[in-house]
Each structure stands twice: as structure tokens, then as C-alpha cells.
Amino acid sequence: MNTAQNRTIDMALAVVAFGLAAVHLMMGMPSDDAPRRVSTAQVRSVEDLGKVFDAREEYSEAVWALVGVDPERDHTAAHLAKNVEERLAAVAWSRELQLVGAALTVAYDQDASALRLVDRAVDKDASQAHKNAVAGVLALAEGRPAADPDELGTTLRSIGASEWLASRVMRRHHDNAGERVRADTYDRRSLSLARNRLDGELITGAVFFGLVLIGFFLLILGPRLRAVLLKRGWVGLGPAGTPFRVDMTQRVILAWFIAHAVLAWTVPRFVQSQPLLLAAMPLLHGIVGLHLIQRLGREPTDSRPLTECLGLSMPRGIVGLIGWSAAGLPIAVFFALGASLLNVVLFGLPTESQNLVNAAIEADPTLLAAIGLSAVIFAPLVEEIIFRGYLFRNLRTDLSPVWAMLASGFIFAAVHLDPQHILPLTGLGVALAYLYELSGSLLVPIIVHALWNALQLGSVIAAYHWG
Q: Are residues 426 and 339 in contact, defined by beta-carbon separation less than 8 angstroms?
């Protein structure tokens, strides 16, 4: 096949890949007149204002700032209601979010705020359950018991609210009904749930803060550690070139992305089980990727095992692997959270979590286990083979290692088709390529990627499933 034919094939693949990406992004953007689906993460972010307010007295003022409490402002229910209204005014309108805000404010006897939010939650096209919930909150704000408090709680849970908000609303219902003992029972229950939420947040924050500090010091000491490793003959990837065909890099990555997109649209039509789908998709992506690398990315005369070409070897035994992974995780956290901070400064805080994180928030135990299997085992293995073992190795042939890290990290982020998280994902990709460059073993970024995803999943469990 001559150069012109190769160029035509690569151009056609690029057009198809960019077209599929554009279609995917446009399908994910709701039209102005379409109802917006509120995510559980959005609902819980509104709820958290009340949970922090509930639990603030359980902590000293030294940790108030860590859980988002301003002692000069957030000390009355009226200020809480104002915060809720300001939060809802700052996001795209959603009848579900307005209902959650109304339920939250009425739970703290802030009836004027609740009535304003109830009015915004009214929607003639809403389901009957939503209309009944609006009527229930309206009754509470007017000092009456809800007609069906259990249905109100069920509706709130169905749109992503937690048991905490349902308990808070039940407290107000029994208070309006003059049932003080039952109201106190729900009050104690909601306080316990709020403490659980804040405990999880503090534990997660402490873990990430510690890892960021360790990662910072490791990077500061990086040049000295690198010099020590070089003296001991540890060169990492070093000056060695790629074992793959550089001229096929674009074709392999574009073909893999196209297959990735086609599988994402077709497989769910045949696999109805969500846990099975979560486990199957990364395995299918991996099979396609390995086939493309083996078929297109290698010289026909190269008889070496693919595992050897990818660098799937122990960095001087199990002890070396453990050491590199233990040092690599803080470095990856530093890069990823640093890029997340830059994302906030440049573009504002993303309005939603990544899709998999949102799924974990809403998951039952079976689905949560499937998410863990996919995110912690299958996805890191597949993505590291494609983006570090193959793409990064080829890019560093024509680019400096630093530029190859940046380019492979950006491409890794771009194929996730999640514009709000492209900087954090790029930061993570750069860190993983950096670890591959230094260690010379693809097992290191695979394990660090798995640990990072496990941390993300663990933070969701601590925040939303704790207690």
C-alpha cells in the first residue's frame, strides 16, 4: 500500500472518529426545551448544605472550614435557607432540584423560602408523583401535615435524595401533626445520618490531603532520586525506542476509538444486565485494542511476546513493584488534583461527577461491586496498554518524553468525551506516563491507575454509602 493510500485511510478514519465524537457530545447536551435529568450528585450537593448545618455542632471550630461552615454566617436556619436558594439559582433549572430545595427548607421551618421554591417546582408536565410531592411540601410549609408523608419520602428518594432528607421531612410532618415524640425520633435519626456523612467527608479529605503532600515532596526530591536510580543502573524506559510501528500510531488509536464508540452504542442493546455490561465493556475494548496493536502496530517479523513489547514486567521483583506503586499513587493524586484545581480556576467547578462516579452514588451493592470490578481491574489494564504501553511509547520516539507525556495524557482525556473533566484526566494521564518513563514497567501505571480509581470509588462510598 503506497503513501497516498495510507494517508487516505488515516484521513477517513479521522473524519469518522471526529464525527462519532461530535454526535456523542451533541447527544449528551439537552435542548433548551427538553427536561433536564437531575443527577444524584447534584441532589446530594444541595442536601449537603443541610447535613453540614446539622452536624456542625459535633465538630470543633478548627474543622468547621473543612466541612464548609463559615462560623460568621452559617449559624442559623435562615442563613441555611438563603444558601439553598443561592445554590439553586446558580444552576440550570430543574423541577426536581427545586423540589429538593423546598423539602430541605421546609424541614428547617423556613416556610417563606419553601413556598418560593415550591412555586418554582410546579410543572404541569410533571408526573403525578412529583405533583403529589409538591402538594405535600406545600402543606408542610402552610403548617399542615402532609397528606401522604411516605409517598413524599419515596418521591424524594427516587430523584436522588438520601434517607437523611426523608427523615428531616418526616420530622416536620410529625411536628405539624403535634406528634412531638415521633418528631424527636426522626430528628435524632437525621442528626446521626448527617454525622456519618461528615465523618466520611473528613476521612476522605484527610487521605487525599496526605497523599498530595507526599506527592509534592516526592516530586521535589525527584531529581535526586532519579540520580540515585541512574547510579544503580535503573534507567526506566531510557533511550530505547518503541517496539511498535510508529507510522501506524494514528490508525491504531483512531480505529480503536471508532470501535469503542460503536460498542458503546450497540452492546447495551443486547446486554440488559447493568452489572454484566459494566464488566463486559472494558474487556471488549481491551480485546479490540490488543488485536489492533498486534495486527497493525507490530512489524510482521517481530516474534517477541506482546507482553515484552508493552513492558509488562516486574521492576526488579515484587518489592520493586510495591515500592514504585506506593510512591506512584501520591504523585498521581498530586497531578490529578492539581489539574482539578486548575480546572476550577479556569472554567469553574464542574457541575457533575464523571458518569461512573454518578452511577456509584446511585448503585445498590451488586452494581457497586460491578463498578468496582470494571473501574479497579479491567479499565486500568486496558487503558494503560492502549495509552501508555502503546501510544506513549510511540510518541516519545518523535517527541521529547515531556511532550509525549502531555500529548498522550491529553488524548487519554479526550477519548473519555467528558469536556468538564479533560484537565483532571490529562493530569492523571501525564502522571501515569511519567511513572512508566521512570520505572520502565507498565505494571506500575496499571497498579497506580487501579489505586486511583479505588480511591475515587472509596470516596463515593464514604460520602454517600457511609452508615
A: yes
CB atoms closer than 10 angstroms to residue 273: 12
The three three-digit cell numbers of residue 288, written as one number: 479490540
The 3-state DSSP class for residue 94 equals: coil
Retrieve residue 173's grid coordinates.
Answer: 410532618
Sign of CA dihedral 92, 93, 96, 99: positive
Could you give the C-alpha distances from 240 to 235, 237, 394, 435, 443, in angstroms and in order?
Answer: 10, 6, 11, 16, 18
**Cα atoms in the Cβ-side hemisphere of radius 13 Å centred on 440:** 19
Angle at 135 between CA 134 and CA 138, to 5 degrees: 85
pLDDT greater than 80 at residue 78: yes
CA distance 330 to 215: 4
Rounded CA separation 245/297 (Å): 5
Number of other residues whose CB lies within 10 A of the CB of residue 33: 5
Query: How many Å apart are CA 467 and CA 463, to the nearest integer?
Result: 10
Q: What is the pLDDT of residue 355?
A: 63
Contact 7, 249 (CB under 8 A): no
Domain residues of the chain, as ranges?
40-196, 221-465
- Cα–Cα distances in Å, from 2 out to 6, 8, 9, 247, 250? 6, 10, 11, 13, 16
Query: Cβ–Cβ contacts within 10 Å for residue 185, how many?
Result: 15
Mean pLDDT of 126-144: 93
Say what the pTM is: 0.87
- Rounded CA-CA distance 407/359 in Å is 29
CA 97 to chain centre: 21
DSSP string for residues in 296-315: HSS-TT--S-HHHHHT-S-S
**Contact in structure between 124 and 64 (CB atoms under 8 Å):** no
Cα gap 302→354, rounded to integer Å: 40
Q: Within 13 Å and on the Cβ side, how many CA atoms surround 308?
A: 6
Using alpha carbons, select from 49, 38, 304, 335 the residue that is nearest to residue 197. 49
DSSP-H helix ranges across 363-418: 365-373, 379-384, 393-398, 401-414
- Report the pLDDT value the prediction gives residue 212, as an integer from 0 to 100: 96
- Residue pLDDT, tens place only, 32-61: 444 456 778 788 888 888 888 887 767 666
